[in-house]
Every structure is written in C-alpha cells, then in structure tokens.
Amino acid sequence: NTKVKSDIEIAQEAQLLPIQDIADQLQLTETEWEPYGRYKAKISLDVMDRLKDTKDGKVVLVTSINPTPAGEGKSTVTVGLGQALNKIGKKSVIALREPSLGPSMGMKGGAAGGGYSQVMPMEEINLHFTGDIHAITTANNALSALIDNHIHQGNELNIDTRRIVWKRVIDMNDRALRNVVVGLGGAVQGVPREDGFDITVASEIMAIFCLARNVRDLKERLSRMVVAYDMNKEPVTVKDLGVEGALTLLLKDAIKPNLVQTLENTPALIHGGPFANIAHGCNSVIATKMASKLGDYVVTESGFGADLGAEKFLDIKARYGEIDPSLVVVVATVRALKMHGGVPKDQLEKEDLGALEKGMVNLEKHIETIQSFGLPFVVALNHFVKDTDQEVEYVKKWCAEKGIEVAIAKVWEDGGKGGEELAQKVVDMIDKSENHYKPLYTLDLSLEEKMETIAQKVYGADGVDFSKKAKKQLKEFIDLGWEQLPVCMAKTQYSLSDDPTLLGRPEGFRIQIRELRASIGAGFIVAITGNVMTMPGLPKKPAAMNMDVTDEGKVEGLF
Ligand code: ADP
Question: Is 510 in the active site?
C-alpha cells in the first residue's frame, strides 16, 4: 500500500499544458485572452459578443448537505464531474469561486478541489492568483477613504458620521478589526468616527462583482450602493459622491474571468468568491454565462449546503443573471451523514449504520429543497477510502427506495474516471427529465414574507422573529422603497437552523433575524441571523501554522 498523497503533493506532480492549449481547446481567438504567466489567463468579455447567438450549454449546479468538520468535498466533486464529462465525450467547462485567504489561513487550507480532482496551479489559486480579490479590497477601501475625505473636506453631503454603513475590508480572518475607531490624532487626521472591517468576500462590491452582467452593469450597480445616511436620514450613494467611475476603473481587469485547467486539462473559469453564509456564495454571473457559451456543460458550485449557496444561486444569481439551471448534484458523504446522526468527529472511521440511518434526514431535507425549486437532481456520494461497503450500500438502498438517482463518486481517488457513472447519470437525467425551475418566491412578496418563505421551506423553521433593531430597519427599508428586492440570508452553514450545534434535521425552531443590511447595488437585503459574523476569527491552531515555503521556493502545507 502506497502512502496517500496530499493535495499539494499531487498538484506538484501535475502535467499541465501551457494555457495557450486550453484557450485553443475553447477556440478563443488570439485577442480574446491574455496570459497571466504560463498556466493562467484572463478572458476578454468580447467573447460574449462574438458568441451571443450561440446556444447556451447546460448548467449543472453542485451543492451539498450541511457541512461538518468531516468535509463534504463539493469542490472536489465539481472538478471531478467536469473531468468525467470530458471523459465520456462531452465538452465541459468548470466554473468555480476564487478562494479567500481567510479560511485558507484559518481552517480549510486550500479550496481548489482535492486528490485527483483539483484545479491548477493550486498554490497560486489559493494565494494571490490574478489579484482579483486584492482589486476588490482596494476598490472597497478606496471608497472608505473617499467617504472620510469628503467629511474632512467640509461634508457637503451632510453625512451623519454616526450612520455610515460602509465598512472597510481585508481578505483575512481578523477579529481584532471588527470594531475600530478611525480619524484619531487631531484636526489634520480627519474626523474621528467608529468604523469596522468585514472580510472582503462578505463585501457588497464582491457581491456586485459576481452579479454584474458586463462593465456597464458593474458601474451602475456600484453607483447605487448606499454608503451612509445624511442628517435627514436620506441615503447617500456612491453616485452622490461621484466616484463610481473610479471604482469601476479599479476593477477593470479583475472583471475578466480567469482561465485555468484541472489535473486532467479540463478548462475551468475561476472568478469571484463571496462566502455563502454571510454573502450570496456563487462565482460570477459573467464566468458562468461565459462557460455556458464555451462548453456544452457547465459544472458550477455554490457554497456550503443547499440551504445557503444553492438557495441563493436559485433565488438571486439565476434570477439576476437570467441563468436557466438544468440539474442539481447534491453531494453527501458517509462521514458527514454519520456526524448528522450524532457521531463525534474522532469516531468517524468506525462503521456505524445506525448513525448513518439517523443522519440521512439532513440529505432528505436538502433534496426536498431542490425539488421545491422544480429541478431534477442526482445525489453524488463522495466516496472516502474508509467508507465500508455496507455503509455505501445503505445509502444506495435508501435512495433506491425513494426513487432517487445516486452515483458513487470516486473522483478524489481516481479523477474523472471515478466520476463516469455520475457524469452519465447527469447527462441522462438532463435529457429525460422535465425541468420546472422557478425561484422560491416572487419579488412582489414583502421582505418579511420572503424571509418566512426561506425559513419555512428551506430551513424547516416555524417562522422568523425580528430583533428590535431589525424591526426598525425593516420599516425604514420599506419606507425607502426597497420592499421588492430579494433577500440574502446570512446564517451559519453548520445547521439548517441558526444554531450551529443543531445537526441532522432540527424541528420546532424559529430563525432570529438580528440585523438587516441594505445592499442596494448588489440588489438584495441581507438578513443577519443568529450569531453569524461578517468578519470571522481564526481558530486556536490556524492552518497557517502548517504552511511553509522552502529555500527553493516550494510550497508546503497548503493541504
Ligand atoms: P468543499 O468544497 O465541500 O468545502 P472540498 O472539495 O474543498 O470541500 O474538500 C475539502 C477537503 O476534503 C480537501 O482537502 C479534499 O482533498 C478533501 N476531500 C474531499 N473529498 C475527499 C475524499 N473523497 N477522500 C478524501 N479526502 C477528500
């Protein structure tokens, strides 16, 4: 038995093609792409004009059960399925998010898939990549600087410095920056006020970046962002400050999707990366639509469980981006299902059919959610080498009894070859099933009704309760005419409820809405539930402690 190789060891042995070959594979013309080094490129948005009359490829959305520390492997299955579709002769393009440095340094290590289903070059994708997230951070903080300068220079817009809602951001988990005071030090250092930092991937600019359809739409959305309220409680926007042009300029290269390849040279677009718990959790509309023009099948992922990423993909991204998804793949693992059935993390290696049976309710709930959007689906059991045959058989039988299609995905061990059964089922299901996709709610419902609908239909809650603050905000937002926007729920990823310790399929609970935020540029109202934080902290033993680079420049410990 050979030692199991780590993701980074496999990555470092990869036989990559020059990015030119991948661009050729996609039949991009010479002026439509520009190399960023040997293995990365940016693709011009002109491609969309050239291909505007080409039929869209099928969009396959990968989601999962509620994540546990045992790991679900959504990115791994997304990459593996893309490779597998290629293997069975379909032209597939993968569309993924750009990893944030917060979780990379904190809990997760990388976020570029795993085993023999990874996107490459994983070190660069996981670190600074092509600088998109830095550009978004810079645009965000340029706006902060411009707001503070406006106030310092006389505050013509009469901004109430106690009601500035725009925060600074950094792409790091840094709890010490959650609440800060800026402008200290006397008259020439600006006007003192309370401020705070969010993580970049929770910022409104990241959301806009991912929802914009082109540069004009990007600029329009940036101009609509509400940054503060004035002394008459009227919103102050980026347009009032006159800086939407500058912000768009800072994003002009970032907005082009990044082209890379998998370990098996399948093309992948990696672009934009909002978190799914505190933001909308999907890669950019531009990249997804471009992928569907360049391939016959797009495999794309939404973050965390179907209660978060998939709900937001189907209620927000697909609605604004006019994307018509064809099918959903729901990823589950025996390990995570056992955790939902009550097994602690350190005992997952042992066979436990009782706990598995108990934990299936979590998968069941997410399947019901996908059905309520009217979409066909396939369950992908992401196979771990320690799963026993009986456990795998149990999941298969459970699905068969309910008439659910399931495929055992061995893409982590075997790459695309291990996903051929899944790929074939995906293709067959798309060909034979009826697709009645529609969002869960219509925009004419009230904000409160929208939140109720998501809480009841997706989380299985009895309803929602508003804090005093949230109630007051709800009234203000209605008065300001924002009632018709969709809702982006910010909720823990670990549970269907807003309490991260309630695993499985909790019942008889209500969702506590603590605070609302108006993301008018992005085009949604964020509802912050439970104790969820828009600036995470680092754990006691951060993943950063295992990371290193050798004297020769070789990366270690990036999973
Ligand atoms: P997600 O997208 O759900 O967060 P990832 O695909 O990023 O999950 O996988 C998380 C980690 O789990 C990665 O380090 C990956 O290598 C590992 N992993 C995923 N699937 C498997 C598997 N079948 N066997 C072993 N490790 C796996």
Answer: no
Q: Give catalytic status of residue 386 as yes or no.
A: no
> What is the C-alpha separation between 327 and 310, in angstroms, rounded?
12
Distance CA 169, CA 167 (A): 7
ipTM for the whole complex: 0.98
276 as an active site residue: the answer is yes
Query: Residue 23 catalytic?
Result: no
Q: Which of 95, 202, 268, 276 is catalytic?
A: 276
113 Cα: distance to centroid of ligand 1 (angstroms):
6
d(CA 116, ligand 1 centre) in Å: 11
Q: Which of 108, 457, 510, 514 is catalytic?
A: 108
Of 371, 494, 533, 511, residue with least CA distance to 454? 511
Active site residue 97: yes
- The stretch 302-322 carries a mean pLDDT of 96
From ligand 1's centre to the CA of 488, what distance in Å? 26
**Beta strand pairing call for 193-195 and 180-182:** antiparallel
- Give 120's contacts (C-beta < 8 A, 6+ positions apart): 11, 14, 16, 39, 112, 260, 261, 262, 263
- The ligand 1 site (C-beta within 6 Å) comprises 7, 64, 71-76, 111, 113-115, 382-384, 412, 559
For residue 22, pLDDT over 80 is answered with yes
CA of residue 486 to ligand 1 center, whole Å: 32
Marked catalytic residue, from 129, 166, 313, 412: 412
The residue count of the chain comes to 559
Ligand 1 atom at minimal distance to the Cα of residue 333? 23
Distance CA 256, CA 135 (A): 12
DSSP state letters, 98-160:
PPPHHHIIIII---SEETTEEEESHHHHHTTTTSHHHHHHHHHHHHHHHHHHHHHTT-TT-EE
Neighbour tally for 194: CB within 10 Å: 12
Rounded Cα distance between 174 and 537, Å, is 5
Selection from 356, 279, 382 nearest residue 71 by Cα: 382
Banded model confidence at residue 1, pLDDT cuts 50, 70, 90: very low
d(CA 258, CA 42): 5
What's the pLDDT tens digit per position in 244-299? 999 999 999 999 999 999 999 999 999 999 998 889 999 999 999 999 999 999 99
With b for 16 or more beta-carbon neighbours within 10 A and e for fewer, the 460-477 pattern comes to bbeebebeeebeebbeeb
DSSP state, 2?
Answer: P
Closest atom of ligand 1 relative to the 109 alpha carbon:
14
